[in-house]
Amino acid sequence: MSMLQEVFVPNIGDFKEVEVIEVLVADNEHVEPGQSLIVVETDKASMDIPAPSAGTIKSLKVAVGDKVSEGKLIAMLQVAQAAPSEVPEAATATPEASEASAQLIQAQAAEPAPSPVTSVVQPKVEAAPTTSGQLVFASPSVRKIARELNVSLAEIKGSGPRSRITKDDVQRYVREVMSGEFQAKGQKVAQASTGVGMPGLLPWPEVDFEKFGPVERRELSRIKKISGANLHRNWVMIPHVTNHEDADITELEQFRVQVNQGQDKAKAKITLLALLMKASVAALNKFPEFNSSLVGEEIVFKNYYHIGFAVDTPNGLVVPVVHDVDKKGVFAIAEEMSSLSIRAREGKLSGRDMQGGSFTISSLGGIGGTYFTPIINAPEVAILGVGKSSTRVVWNGKEGVPRLILPLSLSWDHRVIDGAAAGRFNAYLANMLADCRRLLL
Ligand code: CAO
Known about the structure:
Blueprint: E1 2-8, E2 18-23, E3 30-31, E4 36-41, E5 46-50, E6 55-60, E7 67-68, E8 73-80, E9 103-108, H1 118-121, E10 127-129, E11 135-137, H2 140-148, H3 167-178, E12 183-184, E13 187-188, H4 222-237, E14 240-248, H5 250-261, H6 272-286, E15 292-295, E16 298-301, E17 307-309, E18 311-313, E19 316-318, E20 321-322, H7 330-345, E21 359-363, E22 382-386, E23 390-395, E24 400-413, H8 419-434
Parallel strand pairs: 1-9, 17-21, 21-22
Antiparallel strand pairs: 1-8, 2-4, 2-7, 3-6, 4-5, 6-8, 10-11, 12-13, 14-24, 15-16, 17-20, 18-19, 22-24, 23-24
Helix pairs in contact: 6-7, 6-8
The chain binds oxidized coenzyme A.
Residues 271-273, 309-312, 317, 341, 362-366, 386, 388-389, 406 line the site of oxidized coenzyme A.
């Protein structure tokens, strides 16, 4: 059973006829004990008046601009029937209850006053300077909401008197930032390709490029818009670390060239990337956490080996997947990669061609460069970057000898993988590549 409780302005010290500057709740809204109902302002401070107990606001009795003093009725609160011992002593039943089933009790907000009443006894200064020295006006409750949302009040334009920042202002700011629509002083807030701003960061610089010379504007391709949004999320949300490794592929490359020479010209040739896929699967099998996904507080280990590979297309980056690499030979893998790459460049990949990956390889070897920091392809937890191999003089203990060295860069998710495991993974992978016979085992 429920009852109606009257909520009054509590003892607010010597202040009388103070102005209501914010009403933080609405009719039919559920409130928790201690939740601010209204904010009143004196010439020295602003104070939150809290709800005395949990309940539903049935009828608000004050509006912004009203002048209130101690004892003024703020709202009727529908609360659950308290056990007799829990009913405040001051409570008295009144027959005027508007709802037949409801009982009315009278209780002053000050009595069971939760923590915010402290602001009545020790009013907090409502205007605090920002780091730039500018004064920001906001009530303690608004400051609390802003703190909880990690929003800097200095970035919000207040809509209240004296540019006071209200709860609605904070909520509107967060909504706008989340939808990427925020504009401040004519500048878009820090936003990356996704258009999502980041509270607490400086606004994104907006430059009138035409002022410095002629420019041409082109819209991002559809692929770039999609892959950019994914890359941005992954970069921001995954704690990346990248370990670099050198693999001696002298024998592997000799073997590859030799096999391809005897191969039917019409058929696909073994590529280094196909061999790398095989070697990666061996390492993934040995270190299963690299072939997993993080779901909440659980690691999902996959007993399949579907390896994605980044393909550079005229419209942007796509990542087709070779499924069940562990069950396929290198020729079949090379052939499948070749067909997937062609379809990727023609924009003809199907959904399935790009789904289910458990690990990704991004090779820039055919283009150039050594080490880089590939971005993990979520929800995977690791990605292998491959640079261009080059002949280096390597000391073999007696003399310097020419060896073909392949630069590798493994990025991994530090929530799932530790540096030691990444070091072992790379060492194992490099050993596999150095002794190609082991790939056949
Ligand atoms: N080191 C030196 N040479 C290499 C090499 C390496 N790591 N990898 C390949 N090559 C050589 C090959 O031997 C081949 O040489 P020849 O033409 O003389 O035979 C040439 O580069 C092309 O190799 P390939 O046909 O086997 O192609 P590939 O396997 O290197 O690449 C693919 C295939 C799809 C990965 C590539 O076309 C591509 O799109 N790469 C870019 C991927 C990318 O953009 N990654 C970055 C993502 S983050 O933005």
